[in-house]
Amino acid sequence: MARGAAAKENDQVTVHYEGKLENGEVFESSVDSAPMTFKIGDQMVLPSLERAIIGMEPGQSRTVSIPPEEGYGPHHEELVLTVRRDTLGEGEIKPGMVVAMNMEREGKTHRLPALVLETDAAQVKVDFNHPLAGQELFYTITLTKIESDADSHAG
């Protein structure tokens, strides 16, 4: 095997990937879309995914487990809030919906998505956590192509 065939820092790599939750539910996949191309070290993907790709060769697949701390963070209970029903305007609001809400933070207003957890006539319980917060993530990565700086200088 030729040396240097494995992915390393600063290589541009192309990968197919599938992200699953612990229960097997697929939350993200490149199978139905295009593969993803990025440079290792540019932090375009989770650092633990970059580390998993280093050392892989084209055609190789690997499955990695990413704990919440290295993924979308832990689930913060303080980001689950109960708001007045009328603050969300008219229209149907039911559990499972994602609504855009204004949230004050450090003196600035941010428009953020919130998942509706519960609702009654007067109040709505919403969750501002990322939908994957607190979840262990399982990615299966298949490396399809490596382009290193050395390749572009070969004559």
Essential attributes:
single chain; mainly beta; Chitinase A, domain 3; Thrombin, subunit H; 5-stranded antiparallel sheet; 2 helices; 8% helix; elongated
Describe the secondary-structure layout.
Layout: E1 12-21, E2 26-29, E3 36-39, H1 47-53, E4 61-66, E5 80-84, E6 98-105, E7 108-119, E8 123-127, E9 137-147, H2 149-153
Antiparallel strand pairs: 1-2, 1-3, 1-9, 4-9, 5-8, 6-7, 7-8
Q: Span between N and C termini?
A: 21 Å
The helix/strand order is: EEEHEEEEEEH
CATH class categorisation of the largest domain: Alpha Beta
User: Can you tell me the overall shape?
Assistant: elongated
What average pLDDT do the residues reach?
89
Counting H and I runs of at least 4 residues, what is the number of helices?
A: 2
Roughly how much helix do the residues carry, as a percent range? under 10%
Low-confidence stretches: none
Briefly note the structural class of the backbone. Answer: mainly beta
CATH architecture of the largest domain: Roll
- Strand fraction: 35-45%
Rg over CA atoms, rounded to whole Å, is 21 Å
**Quaternary status:** single chain
* Sheet of most strands: 5 strands, antiparallel
CATH topology of the largest domain: Chitinase A, domain 3
The total of beta strands comes to 9
